[in-house]
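Protocol step 4 of 6: structure prediction from sequence.
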Amino acid sequence: MVKRFLSAEASEILAMSAQELKQSIKASEGRIILSENVAPREPYIAECTNSEMARAFGADLILLNGLDVFEPVIAGIDKVETNIIDRLHQLVGRPIGVNLEPVDQSAAMMDEKLEISSGRQARVETIQEIERLGFDFVCFTGNPGTGVTNNAIIETVKTAKRHFSGLIFAGKMHAAGVDEPVADLEVVKALIEAGADVILAPSIGSVPGFQAAELTEMVKVAHRHGALVMTAIGTSQESAEPETIRYMAIQNKMCGVDIQHIGDAGYGGLAPVENIFTMSKAIRGQRHTLAMIGRSINR
């Protein structure tokens, strides 16, 4: 039986298969935090990467945003002869994922569309590349204005199941500039049927009109079909007061989610570290917070 994430050493976490990692997260009963970092942006604290800083304040999973997987740059890591993701694994001792965006060229946009590089888009070639780089998970979602649609995400999940061995996170944190519902039970079911391991949903209080009852129903559907759920604060509210983060975190946990995401809209492409720490203490208390940040990554 796999050890729950909260009790596992770094060496045990990094040795887990995708399905073992999924079970380890599930066994932690809603007490897992994912920090999203803008990978190429110069960190607010120049002496280390955003990922190291996030882990030091309570992040369990690291999600890299804005990374061109064909020319990967992570600020704070000098160019290395070996795989840059292997190096980041060594530095943080945590599972590492990457955002890839299933851009829909026919999407009905609500505002001006933002063009992104091919190395950030979800295509067969980029999915094959993240497999080669050794990412533990991929997140198929959309940044603001990129024109990512739910249908494109669903089709991309199907493709990823053929080319990627890690966990697949999929769904929307916000509209991504497209005029369509962000959270929808039929979309949840379609994502699970396509093969998604973790369904994304907006955090309570982040998307207008999204209610706790809707999130609870999404969680029940996902859990009934073997998937996990991650709520996301992807609306720049990650830089709000700690009291706001605490409220959102507790509300999300009451709805039954497995992972809570905190976004990258702080100085240097990282949420304010006190908000990562606040979220950690809110959903798992001081004991587990200090254990996670205090245990050496060399164990």
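Step 5 (inspection) to follow. The radius of gyration is 17 Å.
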